[in-house]
């Protein structure tokens, strides 16, 4: 892409606060963006070939939305965690194996999408995020859901299409969790904590495509309590 085209994009971004440059085969984060650290609210660099997010990302202190779907990122810099106003982070379709240690400092984060990466566990850093509403960890390589999940504040957790065979009973203690998606995993019915049904806030549990028949789920103790929550929620949105 020529310099003049990039310049035009930068000029528009200066006025609108939005920098969007998708599907241009970019191999690196445009350095020129640092001229706009105080202007930008949204950066979308999806469908490129970016391998590295530079430390200067930490300077975009007013950034609310960062979208880097379908790139080649293998890691994220610690500086990303300085973005105190960041509410939306979409990193689907990259090669991420873990999150930075200080990820829990992204205190404004509401929506996090990490579908189609190489995560092997539910990152413990997510438990420190008090405003998190939606977490998408589908299509990773997660095998179990650890005890720390009980502190997760999210309303919706998507774990579809992983390799999960074990779930901590602590998931029932998530204070705001209403939607739990576990479709197409490796769960035996005996490994699904019954307290999800009998003693949690969860009103939508999606478990199709595991190692048991759905009708067996309906025979479990606590299923009637789950159905009460499910029906009540349905009525509210009808």
From TrEMBL:
Entry keywords, A to Z: Leucine-rich repeat, Repeat
InterPro entries named in the record: Leu-rich_rpt, Leu-rich_rpt_typical-subtyp, LRR_dom_sf, LRR_domain-containing
GO cellular component: cytoplasm
Pfam families: LRR_1 (PF00560), LRR_8 (PF13855)
Name of the protein described by the UniProt record: Leucine-rich repeat-containing protein 57
Classification lineage: Eukaryota, Metazoa, Chordata, Craniata, Vertebrata
